[in-house]
Amino acid sequence: MSAGQARPADAQPEQDLARAAALLAPAEGAAEQPGPAQPCTPPPQADSVGKALRRVMNPAHGASLLRRGWRCLRQRGPQALAREVSYRVDLMRKGESWRFRADIPLRRELKAQAQEEFPRMPKVSIVVPLYNTPIKYLKQMIASVRAQSYKNWELVLVDASTPAYAAVGKTASRVRDSRIKYCRIAKNEGISANTNVGLAEAEGDYLALLDHDDVLSPNALYEAVKAINDGADVVYSDEIVLDEKLKNLGEYHFKPDFSPDTLRGCNYITHFLVFSRDLLARAGGGEDPAFDGAQDYDLTLRLTEHAAKVAHVPKVLYYWRRHAGSTAGNMEAKPYALEAGAKAVQAQLGRLGLAGQVQPIDGCPGAYRTIYEARAEESVSVLIPNKDHVEDLKRCLAGLYKNAGWSNLEVIVIENNSADPATTAFYAAAKEHLPGLRLVRYEGPFNFSAINNFGARFARGRHLLLLNNDVAFETPDFIREMVSYSQRPDVGAVGAKLFYPDGTVQHAGVFVGLGGSAGHNHKGHPRDSAGDMYRLATAQNMSAVTGACLMVKKSLYDALGGLDEENFAVAYNDVDFCLRLRGQGYLNVMTPFAAGIHYESKSRGDDTHAGGEKQARYEAEKARFVEKYRDLIDAGDPYYNPHFTTLYENYGYK
């Protein structure tokens, strides 16, 4: 290996900014058309004129657009507002245009960033392994780094190209910029070993990884250093997948904030990754060749295990080029990469002392399921409130006893003022024939929180499962699955994936802020949908899960005083409870591998549009919830990207 000599810089900030603008600006007269989407990922949805007009005419959507426009004008000025209006018009005329949704900064903003002085101005070393890189891609990548508004950077190019690609080294060597270090290595040792050469050559206190065929947004380093000054030692951003010409949209990767269970399900972090040199040392050093194909995934898992603060910048700072030779092109064509990803997650389980097995998920390349071992001593008490509706209860109990997959179980039916004699007869027969079933009586008026709190007093299990009588489980071993998460000391509530009878998604976790209060993840999506970035196919950290099927350690339930009987008798009690758990530092988890049908409020009716006393009570509880959690709602759900709409529960774009 030979390290190249530093060369005098001849680039000026104005030229760099102009180069960035030229790189990412639309070609004159070019039409923007959505590109192909990855398997299991919904493609960007283009609005027709009629559909877009109907959305604008919707009072809630129109009001949201006005608020966004006013905020854009105040924060970024008339030029940014004009671009936002142009984007909306183009959206109606010809569909999605990624260039405006992608947070590309204005030129005046880049100039201001170039002049800004942070308390800490660390050197960031960007490490790029080169291997037979197409010259056009190489030039675009280098230009995007030189165009950064933050100037204290170093670009380390590690070239392992074959002799037939000698032009790669010649092109890199011709760039006159003292911040670029070119290293030629005689033999290609693989992506991990080559990257480690660059990490060793790097001089910066912070390190970043960039693929040789991708490009950065000109504000990428500025945003990363801004997060570093807020205490982060790992920073990642949103990204966009484009075609090989960097013209047409493949898909957006709008990500949640750091979510360890979500990360074990798939490497949603990927790019743009920046981390401290000290953290890299604590995490065991550079990339491990044993995980080639998923080496960045392994590194990310190790870094986040040791990080004091993992920061997510919800802006598109990275442009991932999809072509035949890239991972973004078709991960299914690289089975070794899928196997390496499973190995990376398995290795993390070993480091964390978590017993379990990791396996790829069929049909979702790059997604993984962790089957944690569930300890046999983890006893479970199932609490089922019931008033008449014998057929619902029969179906619920049948699914429970057939599919629980757990013998250390008691079932407590909490009787609440049933009037049908058939109910009494069924209770007698059930107690005789169903092992571990008990009946307790709550005499007061219907109050979901109070009924469950009452039932919990009789529970002998280490874990409580709050279960509606109109839920019928279909997946085998669903209680075993939920126990495997609930037993972890870092986990608070565990929820299941529930479908409407028509097979569409009813519940896959709860986001705060949807509809102005709280709403469901991917509500209404088809049963077989994997969701955005596999968020319906893998275990997810969520702000809350539904009380229709919620497991929690009894010790935590008791410590928090159970559900709030006074303020949330019927609605929002589950979300409030989960947010109190989150406030204590616990992770809430939704697992799609515990799934069933929820006959949504069938046994009581829907309070949200019931009229009269029921609806008035619902609206009052909603108002109390919004008042209590106004700060969280305004800040935005950490597990829900701000690029997505909060008006609907369909995971649509704003």
SSE topology sketch:
Layout: E1 2-3, H1 13-24, H2 49-57, H3 59-76, H4 78-94, H5 98-101, H6 107-115, E2 124-130, H7 135-146, E3 153-159, H8 166-174, E4 180-184, H9 191-201, E5 206-209, E6 215-216, H10 220-229, E7 234-242, E8 249-253, H11 260-265, E9 273-276, H12 277-282, H13 295-306, E10 310-321, H14 335-352, E11 356-360, E12 368-372, E13 380-386, H15 390-403, E14 409-415, H16 421-433, E15 437-441, H17 448-456, E16 463-467, E17 471-473, H18 478-486, E18 491-499, E19 505-507, E20 510-512, E21 518-520, E22 540-542, E23 549-553, H19 554-559, H20 573-583, E24 587-598, H21 612-628, H22 630-635
Parallel strand pairs: 2-3, 2-5, 3-4, 7-10, 13-14, 13-16, 14-15, 18-24
Antiparallel strand pairs: 1-4, 5-9, 6-10, 7-8, 7-9, 11-12, 16-23, 17-24, 18-19, 18-23, 20-21, 22-24
Helix pairs in contact: 1-6, 1-7, 2-4, 3-4, 7-8, 13-14
